[in-house]
Amino acid sequence: MRKSTTKSTKSSRVTYDVLEEIARLKIQEFIQDILNEEIAEFLGRGKSERIKAIDIPHNYRNGKGKQRNLALMNGTITLRRPRLREIKGFESKVLPLFKRRSKELGEMLPELYLHGLSNGDFELALRGLLGEGAPLSASSIQRLKAKWQIEYEEWKKQDLSEVKITYQWADGIYVKAGLEKDKAALLVIVGAQTNGKKVFLACESGYRESKESWMGVLRDLATRGLKLGRLTIADGHLGIWSALGEIHPEGDGQRCWNHKITNVLDAMPKRVRAEAAEYLKKIPYAETKQECQRLRDTFAARYRKTYSKAVEKLLSDWDRMVTFYSYPKDHWVHIRTTNVVESPFSSARLRTDAAKRFKKVENATTMLWKLLQVAEKNFRSLKSYWLLLDVYAGKQFVDGEMVTAIKKSERKAA
Prior knowledge:
five-stranded mixed sheet, two-stranded antiparallel sheet, 50% helix
């Protein structure tokens, strides 16, 4: 029990560190954008725009100054203050000349970022941060917001024909948006490249993870030249599996064990869940497919009479629960669950839950995409990534070992 607690604590600490890094990088980018807009507002023109008659005389952009560190509540960020050839009459209200630390920025910017996609909340947060005299007009605010949308639209058009994917994880996150009672589903796909690097492939809004919504996402990826990998890891929603059955029938499917265990326990009374969980958690960690099925049968024999619905949930779609045994053993830790997607979603949920409701689904999609792009920089490579080329080439595995390395007698038994 002590070992399990230590492992859980370590995992929580890693997740917290990643979230802290994501928040810090986003704050840095956001303040840099505001500094640029502050200069644009002072000059009365954006970058590369021609000088107008009403411009302040003799004021021109002159690159950026040296990197400066600014200490916030959650760490230090690096900024470069835009320079003017003649700075008479201008003093930054965002970053005063000798400012090195800001308690106010540290406390306010995460909230500013969180609410930054609603016009009213965005402006309110800016005024609270910078004061009523902040040099930001409605057009400045719109430019700051539009930047993400433009980046997102460009990202969705990227050519994927040269991207070689071996595995892909698919999942959805729900947010409240618009006037509809139903939550909007944001459909996300993460792919594992043959070099071991993970990359976000799709982030689209859809209706409740329906078959039609997932088919739209998969068709778009195919149009951009992507060839899906051999294995898809997803939860139990029928939409993704139905879509894959039509778009990618030759691929294998692995259902998430975390979702499966949760679904089984939900069909049992609380008083027996702790005991049942101990049995369930051992099943996906069996060394062989045969042992995995033996543990399944043990659980079924123990609980079938009293909790038949829970047992039915465990047995449901069983073939998709044990697909991972047909792939390299070193990759099992990655492909048994949808944690690859769930981990970056955890930081996204902190913001979507606090935001309560977005005015538009597009706003939520853009914000989550930006969050996921930042999270992507912290992705770790898959273990034993060199085996991905074998999987990509179609080589076969039994109980995690490549078939060519198995004795003939063992191969027949498998």
